[in-house]
Amino acid sequence: MAWSTTWAFVVMPDHLHWLVALKEADLSRLVLRVKFRSNRDQLRSWPERTGVAAGFSRPRDTTGGGFGRVARYVVAHPVRAGLEQSVGDYPHWDARWV
Asked: Is the dihedral of CA 81, 82, 87, 89 positive or negative?
């Protein structure tokens, strides 16, 4: 079952930004499922790790409106965080329209 459609994401060193359209599940259930699978896989690969942190932040439009602006805002996080000079230089992101 497809719970959602991913439109854009960026994996940061310690968290994930994810623009997602829900289908069948509510956001809390979807995040719980993703974290469960991620935690399970991490602990198999790196037993010394403690796992995924609890909780998540609900989305908010900090761009002034518009789906395209939100998507660009999501993938630009590494530049704003000072990790790269350009979004294209950061390897851990994708967007549906690319």
From this structure: negative
Strand order in the sheet with 16-22: 16-22, 4-11, 93-95
**What is residue 94's predicted lDDT score, i.e. its pLDDT?**
94
Render pLDDT for 43-95 as a digit per residue (tens, 0 to 9). Answer: 666 556 555 556 666 666 555 667 788 888 999 999 999 999 999 999 999 99
Strands 4-11 and 16-22 turn out to be antiparallel
Closest CA to 52 of 15, 8, 9, 11: 15
Q: How far does Cα 36 stand from its chain's mean position?
A: 15
